[in-house]
Amino acid sequence: MSPLETRKSLIVRLKNEQNDADWRDFVCAYEGFLNRLVRRQGVPERHVPDVTQQILLAIARSIEGWSDDGGRASFRRWLGAVSRNVVIRFMSRERRQAGGVGGSELMAVLQSVADRPDEQQLQRYQHELIVWAAEQVRHEFLDTSWRAFWRTAVEGQPVDLVGRELGVSPGSIYMSRSRIMARIRGKVAELDAP
Known about the structure:
Elements: H1 3-16, H2 20-40, H3 48-62, H4 74-98, H5 103-112, H6 119-137, H7 143-154, H8 159-166, H9 170-192
């Protein structure tokens, strides 16, 4: 039995049963051929495996529609047509995604950006960063500790007043504030870590 007959029988099995063993055989037999087709059609090397995978999916969806036209290399011609269609769709998507703002508009935007943020922007960023970090660690503390921290450290309410209202000692509030602030600083530091 020649390799061409084996491939035809494999194709027939794919159309009729679509089982995993037959698909593995198919991929082993045709993946190299499809990779070469994709490269020849100008797909960048880093995208060849992904595009080949897309071709294999397209084949799986449309294998039922293939019929032997009686000509030489009928199935390979069909594979070539399927791969061309997939490559054309891929290249069109890449072209659309690669197109961005450019030219004089982009230069004007870039030139309008200050070299350094002003003091107000920097303070706003630091505030947002601390608020974000606080939300990230909030679940680690008891509600009473968190409320005491928030009211005294963030809202600036007197420790004695907050302690009386929450039923906790001023010393407890200072300890909670210290632990919570250390945890918030640690969370912010994680962002700067490489």
